[in-house]
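Supplementary Note 3. Input sequence used for the single-chain structure prediction.
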Amino acid sequence: MNSSCVENCTYEEKVSLKEAVDDATAGMFIVILLFVLPARPNFWPIAKAGRSRPSAALLTWDAIHDRMPWALLLLMGGGFALSKATRVSGLSAWTAEQLEVLRPLDERLIVLIVSISAAMATEFTSNSATASIILPVLRDLVNSETIF
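The predicted structure, written as discrete structure tokens, is reproduced below.
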């Protein structure tokens, strides 16, 4: 980590090299490979001499553009980005600290309050975004060991 990095470091300054290659890297490699590999391999080593012709790729941009549910991709990606932002910025830990006022209440009542709050939030935001934001807050709330 950079020695000049203080409390408000960006995520890129905190990330280690081990996190640079993960499951998403392998997935992107496969998708790029699908754009490169031909659908009908009728080129020189496979086809007979003189009958070699170019072939379209297994996956084309037109197929992606027409069949990909872009709204779903943006909805899920936005939820994951919000979740990461709340964790990295410390918002989930701060929110968990603010929920310490619930400490005198019974655990079942706390679960009921959180459930109703989540249900109300899903009326205005997507379910994935709500879950991605609330779950890190609840994790920090439970880890604080002041309530449960």
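The chain has two domains: 1-68, 69-148. The two ends are 34 Å apart (CA to CA).
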